[in-house]
Amino acid sequence: MEQNKLQDSVSLPQTQLLIKALFTIFVFASVFLLPFYIHNQLVTGSLVNAGLLVASFVLGVPTALLLSFAPSVIALLRGLLPVSFAPIVPFIIASNIFYVLIFQLFPKKKILGGVAGSVVKFVFLYTIGQALFSHIIVPNLLQKASLMVGWFQLITSLIGAGIAVMIEKTYQIEK
Fold first, then answer.
1. Cα–Cα distance between 122 and 99 in angstroms, integer?
2. In-domain check, residue 7
3. 98 touches 56 (CB < 8 A)
4. What Å distances lie between residue 38 and 45, 96, 116, CA to CA?
5. Nearest to 130 by CA among 143, 111, 116, 112
6. At 150, which CATH number?
7. Greater pLDDT, 84 or 96
8. Residue 67 counted as domain residue
9. What pTM was computed for the model?
């Protein structure tokens, strides 16, 4: 009798719990570990963006919003971002938050949410980046800075959204 009560109290089947645990590990690895080991913005950015969106439907939106702070702060503290890029970090964090929130505005149309979130993230970060970097960065770094907060953001966020949508559809993960 006690055993049945315990089994009834678990709302997800064992396999669903295992899948959820594995994707929780993916989220934390993509947000906290990848920036240390992979220094390719296309790969790291795509997986970090996927991790943020997967976090939103595996761990919940509040957790995903908290995780939005980690990648750029870690990159700055570890020296992966030049110190001259420090002023853009709060805006990268804000763009990650917009990305997660807009993605979640379309619970039945995740692809549309991913595209909309990616476009808003790109436009916001590109606009802020151009204004900020043109005043504080030496000209030889301006092109690198513009790339970092420009088209790469759009590409990596679209790839990340694609990965997250495929994960969600394939495994039908629900919080």
1. 9
2. no
3. no
4. 10, 19, 27
5. 143
6. 1.10.1760
7. 96
8. yes
9. 0.83
Count the domains in the chain.
1
3-state SS record for 38-103: CCCHHHHHHHHHHHHHHHHHHCCHHHHHHHCCHHHHHHHHCCCCCHHHHHHHHHHHHHHHHHHHHH
* Residue labelled with tokens 């030049």: 82
Report residue 75: phi and psi, to 5°: -60, -40
CB 118 within 8 A of CB 157: yes
Cα 133 from Cα 126, distance rounded (Å): 10
Closest CA to 161 of 41, 32, 48: 48
Is residue 6 one of the residues assigned to a domain? Answer: no
Q: How confident is the model at residue 22 (pLDDT cuts 50, 70, 90)?
A: confident
Domain-located, residue 149: yes
Tokens of 117: 């979130």
> Residue 19's pLDDT is what?
77
Judged by DSSP in three states, 39 sits in coil
One-letter amino acid for residue 71 of the chain: P
Q: Which sign does the torsion angle of CA 113, 115, 120, 121 carry? A: positive
Q: Tokens in use for 116?
A: 């909309």
Q: What percent of the chain has pLDDT over 90?
A: 41
Q: Which domain holds residue 144?
A: 12-171
